[in-house]
Amino acid sequence: MKFAVASLFAGLALKAAAAATTLDQLASSVDKTESIREIKDVTATFAQLAQFGRYAEMAALFASDGLLVWGNASAKGPDTIRQWLTRDAGDMNGIQPGSLDAIVIATPVVNLAPDGKTAKGRFNGLRFQGDGKGNTRMQGGIYENEYARVDGRWKISVLRYYALYEGNYADGWRNIGHENLGPPPPFHYTPDEAGTPVPLSTVTDKASGNTTDFRTLQYRIDKLNDEDEVRNLQHAYGYYVDRRMWNDVVDLFGNQSGTIEIDNVGHFEGPQRLRTALEQWMGPEGLGQGVLNEHLLFNTIVSIRSNVSLSINNTGIEKLADSRGLEIGLIGDAAKGTASWRFSIFRNTFAKSDGIWRMLNVSISPIMVANYSGGWSNGSMFPSPATISLDKPLFLDYSRDETGKAPMLDGVASLEELERRLNRSAAYDGVENVSNAYGYYMDFIDGKACADMAALHAQEGNKESPFAGFYQTPRRIREACTAAYGTGEITNRSGVSFHWRPQPVIHVSHDGRSANLRARLLQPATGKAAGSAQLRGGMYQDQMALEDGIWRLWSVTIDEFYWGVSSWKDGWSGVKPRAANASNPAPRDLIKQYPPDLLLTEMGDPRETGFQGGSGRYVAWPEIQRMWFGYQNPVSGRVPESYWPLCVPCQHRPEWKLSQHGWLEPPAGPPWI
User: Fold this and answer.
1) pLDDT in tens, 652-662
2) Start and end of every SnoaL-like domain (predicted)?
3) What is the biggest distance separating any 2 CA atoms in the chain, rounded to whole angstroms?
4) b/e code 249-281 from CB counts within 10 Å (16+ = b)
5) 29 with 8: CB under 8 angstroms?
6) pLDDT band at 410 (very low <50, low <70, confident <90, very high)
7) Domains and CATH numbers, the chain
């Protein structure tokens, strides 16, 4: 059953007259925005617990009548679910020496029901397992989950995993049953519903945790705003690490006496020692040809502390926060023929002073380091299993119980100001929803998916079709898509290239009606035949706008591919360089079939130089393509070497800018508020 389409923001646009929001209405909206966050966090907690074989605690995340459906298997009730999880994992449980159970649940599209008591969520999933004794398993698919609020806490009522591909490490994954894949797992949302994660209730409810105390509401909204900044900081850190941009990483610590601790490597404090830690663990500044240093961040939970610990030595700290998640390192040097996997848990601390969030402590706990050639079948090269504590790093509580008194606040905002601040945090969830919905439609692309994908766009929105150019308006976007993929539905296909868009950095405008987004393209691909497994990566630089109460895609740009594999067996370090005198790939047929409104070749140097379909010589992995950033360093404001803020095609089509159509341009550098 589809949820009704009505936005939290409907009627609240600053450009339109609206009825004044009451304190009770604001309290209800705060509660629902917090609910969206808690639903994402309980799902991430499920994944985090698996890494240490804590299946009883995973089962406790379900409602008393909760249901787990995993492919063709099912279990009902927490105890039965615990038994199934334990039995299914066997010795691939993260507890046995040399074992691994790393669950990734990413790219959420979450929709709250109008009454705020139930919700549905769609996620991408991968699972990497090994028993350390030669046996491995990889699983990939899509979750369509249901959630219920029970005694003030969000619980999983149905975890439904649609198994799409699987395999052992040596052979790589392929389609389930080695058969064609059918239609996509059912969507719980329409394109409009993707852009309205929180519907507007007709009745102001008094849900658990709701309060009309003004000071407490301000405290809760401030926490939501702080979460957004900390999550952005965590994800931006990951992107700097990918490119070994150590100056920018050190900048993220500001003037704090920051530390980096890597289990079995060392404890490093102060700017120069921070750089030493990074170089010792990951290599010198910058990437040379064939060097891969991808550190994919998943299952991230952010928690703002209620008060500042007195044990912190740094003075002037106003607030503290923590993040925890899974880091999967894809490490390699093609010139040397070396490649490895690194699975680590990160638990980081952040500090806010002078109104700016900075990194304070980075803690990395490797749980599996393995050569690419053999994978994790025989355990980890580093560290020895005996050094891993099941309780380190500590877990974060996903719940948002705010029953205690709020701390004293420096100043009290007006009701109108609180509403504006809340809209900015609710925007974060709306932007993430519509971003990920785009990826899910692109996965199983056909005529219907083309129409749904195009419907995600604003009326004056634009989208890049890879290796060709940009099309403006939903009609043009839809017709370009159907020109490439046809108008009919495909119910039987031999393979799928997935379009994950994880690790978002989202900067929202002052009024909460527009946003910039940076996200990865992580593209696992599967097929029916043996040897079909593929993995490659790119980067999105997008903009979104709130149009008629619904979050829409304003501009979609994809820079691809920065790295990839030519075969699962050879991995990312087995890709052979293109000959220096090789011709560029032929232009895409779409350019003649349905000419773009702006060709990539028209954008020219420097933005599209080196990308397929752009200008100049095509640069393909293992060569290093330049990495574009749409924002400055979030702490220092350092401008990246390759900097292209805001709407990518708008420097060539200024009439496509948000500001030309009644929206504010979101910030591209500090201050972010």
Assistant:
1) 999 999 999 99
2) 33-159, 223-360, 427-556
3) 70
4) bbbbbbebebbbbbbeeeebeeeeebbebbeeb
5) yes
6) low
7) 23-216 (3.10.450.50), 236-387 (3.10.450.50), 417-661 (3.10.450.50)
